[in-house]
Amino acid sequence: MWYDLLIGFIGVLTSTVLVILKRPAFPQFFLYGFICVIYALGALWIVTFRSTIVSFEIALFFFVTITFGPFVGSFTAMIVILLVWVGKALYSYVKKEGDPLYTLRAGFFNSGLYGILYLLGGVVYTALGKGFWESLISILVIIVTNEFIFVIKEILRGQNILDYLKNEALPSDFVELLIYPLGISMSLLFSTYGFPAVIPIVAVILLLAYIGHQYSLYQQELEKNLSTMERLNEIQGMLNRLTEPQEILDYSLATISSIVPASFVAVRILRKLSYLSELKIYRDGEIRTISEEEFDNLSWDLIFNLTQDELILGELFIGLKQRVPRSLTSALENLVGVINVSLNRSIIYKESILDGLTGLYTRRFFEERIKSYIAQSKREKTPFTIVLFDVDKLKYVNDTFGHLKGDELLVSFSKILREHTRECDLRARWGGDEFVIVLYGVRKSQAESVAERVVEEFGKVRFKGMGGEFVASCTYACKQFDPEFPVTPQELFYLVDSILIAKKKNRQ
After folding, report:
1. When comparing pLDDT for 325 and 372, which is higher?
2. Fewest beta carbons less than 10 Å away: which of 279, 289, 319, 499?
3. Helices marked H in 242-269
4. d(C-alpha 397, C-alpha 399), whole Å
5. What is the CA radius of gyration of the chain?
6. Which domains, and CATH codes, for the chain?
7. pLDDT > 70: percent of the chain
8. What's the pLDDT tens digit per position in 217-247?
């Protein structure tokens, strides 16, 4: 940054001070204004090919330098380039495209660079005698000085100098050697026939610049689209490997931020799903859950729906740092479609093994998994304990306060069950009011302590009903599976269920 500012200050101040002190003869006002406008267009219509950048206005600046002297040439090049980059910065600020401050810094560097180049080139041309060969030497001085300044810049950036010279400097210098002589032809025509004779060459230069610039924009857009398509294929492959719905959403939020210049990407899930957070945001490189109040303060530019069975499952909100082209918006639409497919696949699988109300595993899934626990226990000679819970008087609560209140009891109990058991423990909803857990590697005495804690915590919860509050209770039964005296899953369930029935009868 400091090097850029140094070059900018040297070029801008030197060319400006010399014009003030030397008072060189400028072209007539209208002619000079016309020249500056043409040169500004040439500076805007740059042509890029891979890593090579070519701008046809260099021939026009060289024409002014060898025709009107080094002071007029360097000042004109400096002021035109500065105004062009200031215009770019204002455009990026208004359109929210890019960083205006970075654009201003780049413009200041380039305007200073042009001031230095054409001042040196013009001084050499004048000092050597203002002939044809002198003009060629002046062109070489400009090109060599330009590369010297950029080589220092690349060294400060820590870049490989040989790669820079091979891939950027030499191809660009070769093209510039073909463009600069146009300035010599323009100067000869101007000195012999006046400015009207120069206009056809200027028109051709501008036409070539415009056509080349449009082709460059097309190439850049094509490369961006191909890069985006490759990225989408990578993302789709990753989404296909993820199985958890929340993992898919979290990955999607971060991925969208890597594709578009987003200040944030947020998701709001409209369906009540125990395994999905309702509000999440990816911002500043991290993802977190947010509150409704924080969400209401967000201002977004794009919104996409996530659907399931033709119903809206949730919404994706994107706040942009700058405007994005239509092609990128279309790519986002395709990406959201891929996310939607992956999310639906994951939810379908999740709902096939999870109870929709409590978020615990289903009985069917539990019955399949218990077989693997038994096999593992026999193999490792490690016991485990199965605990069966029954929420007391659920039918009475449903009949008295309604099924929504009964569901509230079940959801509350499942939450307590998750909080007071390990993540590795297998937890499932066994039936309407029954829950079951497998505590692998835990003996019956330890399992009873866990069950007592769950019962105690559930008894502390107060539920609001008609006419006041009430508390609920539950009953549990434990049965240890001993690998030395194995039983079948059906026998194990029968034994623990028998113990639970007996306990409930004793309590009545």
Report:
1. 372
2. 289
3. 245-259
4. 6
5. 38
6. 2-221 (1.10.1760), 242-350 (3.30.450.40), 363-507 (3.30.70.270)
7. 96
8. 777 777 776 777 777 788 888 888 888 888 9
